[in-house]
Amino acid sequence: MKVNGVPCRTIWPDPNDPAVINIIDQRQLPHAFVVEGLRSVEEFATAIREMHVRGAGLIGATAAFGIYSALLAATPATAEHCLDQGADLLVATRPTARNLAWAVNRQRAALAHGKTLAEQQQIALATACAIADEDAAFCQRIGEHGLPLIAAISRRKQGAPVNILTHCNAGWLAFVDYGSATAPIYAAHQRGIPLHVWVDETRPWLQGAKLTAWELGQEGVPHTLIADNTGGHLMQHGLVDLVIVGTDRVTRTGDVANKIGTYLKALAARDNQLPFYVALPSSTFDWGISDGLAEIPIEERGGDEVRLVRGRTCDGRDETVCIAPVGTAAVNYGFDVTPARLVTGLITERGITPPLAAAIAALFPEYY
Ligand code: MRU
After folding, report:
1. What's the half-sphere exposure (Cβ side, CA atoms, 13 Å) at 300?
2. pLDDT above 90 (res 2)
3. What is the set of active-site residues?
4. Domain end marker among 134, 159, 183
5. Residue 18 maps to which CATH number?
6. 11 CA → ligand 1 middle, Å
7. 96 lines ligand 1 (CB under 6 A)
8. Which of 48, 72, 177, 271 has the most crowded CB, counting CB atoms within 10 A?
9. Ligand 1 centroid – CA 175 distance (Å)
10. CB of 309 within 8 A of CB of 318?
């Protein structure tokens, strides 16, 4: 997608230095566009843990390049140790995101074919680039599969704007390109279908306010920022036609883990008979688990992320302020689980499926 009109991805090898992988430091958005070069597996782990990069697909691609970086620092004698240590370090950074372990496992499988360290380094870079390219291609296909949903609502509304509500940032910033939840939106917008996006601000990190609003703005997609509690009211008053969100992990039975607050949107959508879709590439399925509530690990982050808010003052200074009485206890669950029964459909790179094991198996038979 574009930044100031110029096509951009969220992660790319530095053209001038093969040991450096560039990312966008998303903590600085929307006020500053800062490219950061990552040079060691420790820097990759910090970038994921501290959310310089975030979002399911991008976390996976970053981990894949992190493995490459771990091997660049190895000698033939330490290669196996560096690989194991790097993999453990990366996988521990964000527990809910399935793409993280998926990408590291894919690297490990590919690296089994490398006989020398030089060969392994080459394989690791090629595999990381393939994961990034595939992520972008799969998201583009998610857009093509999701487009008819928006087109059908547009026809029903005789061309009046289709109102889509989304939560958190499942946009191109959360992947390598296109995004998952945003891919159908971008596809529809590019085809001239009038639409408008309600952007949940998404406390406590404010991915909606800081990232989704920014990237929709860059693409010229009409959107309105709302406080997290607003969606239900909008739905009750006929101001939402469709909800599309992303996800960090989906069970083989269609239970969905996504940014905290997603479950409440799904409940409100069900109460208002509105379609609630979840968009994901297949790399986000956890094929080995069936019960989302019991089996998906939910990341818990520090209370300061709830107590403190970072932003830019009107005179251009970046400030962090406290919004609660000093010492207030705060709990910070990063994700919640929306049971499959509340999900209308899963939009994947192979098509749309109901969130049912048998239906998902029909699209992805190799995993069942
Ligand atoms: O904590 P984050 O910003 O990594 O969480 C991101 C989300 O919850 C997105 O909605 C999710 O990754 C799905 S789309 C990649």
Report:
1. 3
2. no
3. 248
4. 134
5. 1.20.120.420
6. 16
7. no
8. 48
9. 9
10. no
Domain CATH number, residue 156: 3.40.50.10470
Domain range for 66 is 2-134
Q: What is the pLDDT of residues 114-173, one digit of tens each?
A: 999 999 999 999 999 999 999 999 999 999 999 999 999 999 999 999 999 999 999 999
Helix, strand, coil share (%) of the chain residues, nearest 5:
45, 20, 35
* Total domain count, the chain: 2
> Of 109, 134, 159, which one is at a domain's C-terminal end?
134
- 54 in ligand 1 pocket by Cβ < 6 Å? yes
pLDDT per position as a tens digit, 327-339: 999 999 999 999 9
Per-residue pLDDT band for 54 (boundaries 50, 70, 90) equals very high
pTM assigned to the model: 0.97
Pocket test for ligand 1, best of 169, 212, 296 (most atoms within 8 A of CB): 169
Cβ of 180 closer than 6 Å to ligand 1, yes or no, is yes
Give the pLDDT confidence of 273-290 residue by residue, as tens digits. 999 999 999 999 999 999
Query: Measured over all CA atoms, what is the biggest interatomic distance in the chain, rounded to whole angstroms?
Result: 67
Do residues 181 and 245 lie in contact, with contact meaning Cβ atoms separated by under 8 Å? yes
Q: Which of 202, 215, 244, 258 to mutate to test the pocket of ligand 1 (most atoms within 8 A of CB)?
A: 258
Does 249 sit in the ligand 1 pocket, CB within 6 Å?
no
> Are residues 125 and 154 located together in one domain of the fold?
no
- In whole angstroms, give the CA distance from residue 110 to residue 333: 34
Are 149 and 127 in the same domain? no
Residue 1 confidence (pLDDT) above 90? no
